[in-house]
Amino acid sequence: KILITPKSFKNYKEKAHRLLQERGYEIIENNLGRTMTEQEIIDAAQDNVVGIIIGIDPLPANVLEQCKSLRAISKYGVGMDNIDLKRAEELGILVKNAVGTNSISVAEHAIALMFASARNLPAIAAGVKSYGWDRTIGFELTNKKLGVIGGGQIGKEVAKRAVGIGMNVTIYDPFFKDLAFLEQYNVQRQEQLDEVLKESDIISLHLPATEDTKGLINAEALKRMKPTAILINTSRGELVDEAALYDALVNNQIAAAAQDVYSSEPPQQGDPLVALPNFILTPHIGAFTHEAVERMAMVSTENLIHMLDQ
Ligand code: NAD
Hints:
InterPro entries: D-2-hydroxyacid_DH, D-isomer_2_OHA_DH_cat_dom, D-isomer_DH_CS, D-isomer_DH_CS1, D-isomer_DH_NAD-bd, NAD(P)-bd_dom_sf. By secondary structure, the chain is of the alpha/beta class.
């Protein structure tokens, strides 16, 4: 049996289900309308589940240990911070993500958040809905400096689009090797994170949340940024120290922040950061487009079949 947890998988499930059924797999769908809890995954997996197509539902060590028949995990998406990769390897469970399937969608959303912050679009448009006509002054992105932190699949798509807008783009990524990309798209590379933080008008995060990167944007990092700077985070909430970001926004240490991700999704009622006018939050929709969802459904299914065939 195969357990499929992501809600949006259903939109494109026919072809994917057919591929699995042709190979004799029976499908268990998550019909809860939300991500599954650890216990719900454990319970579902007791029924001879050999493969899971997983969204952002939790797969820590204790869950993996109790999924006795599990042989392969296929990530419906890219970020694998919800899976204990080390324990999976120890248990002989194969894991693969759907590399590159949602890069364009997330990159477009990051660019959208840059424009939204530069013109304060959410607040202004909401004002007109209540028949106001407030014209807050904004600024252009053209000729501004963009610091892309993490130059992988998504970071590169963001860089390309930002160059197209006329921004000056610098990538910070200690593991970056694609020098031909830099030349082709007229993108700079900087080896010091502090320099990128200091010089950029906009900082956009495109790196995974790991033990090394959690809290990368903390009080110290925010202090280095320009008072006019905007922080964009479409990667993971854990990358940003939200208490420090609140202080930085309230004290005009930076101008604005826009995120698609948060430490708690959805945020807790009354969260003071969420209420700030210079903070934009969207509900983790970076990869949630028809095109990306279809690619993620197909590639995660093919990846799972491939792993189970081994
Ligand atoms: P990727 O693996 O292609 O790229 C990640 C890059 O980050 C790599 O080039 C890596 O070298 C770099 N990196 C690692 N540690 C770093 C560090 N300390 N400093 C700077 N760079 C570092 O992944 P991707 O497809 O570009 O995705 C990036 C992240 O975006 C994912 O890990 C995920 O968390 C997030 N994401 C969010 C959404 C969404 O819906 N908002 C969707 C997909 C992915």
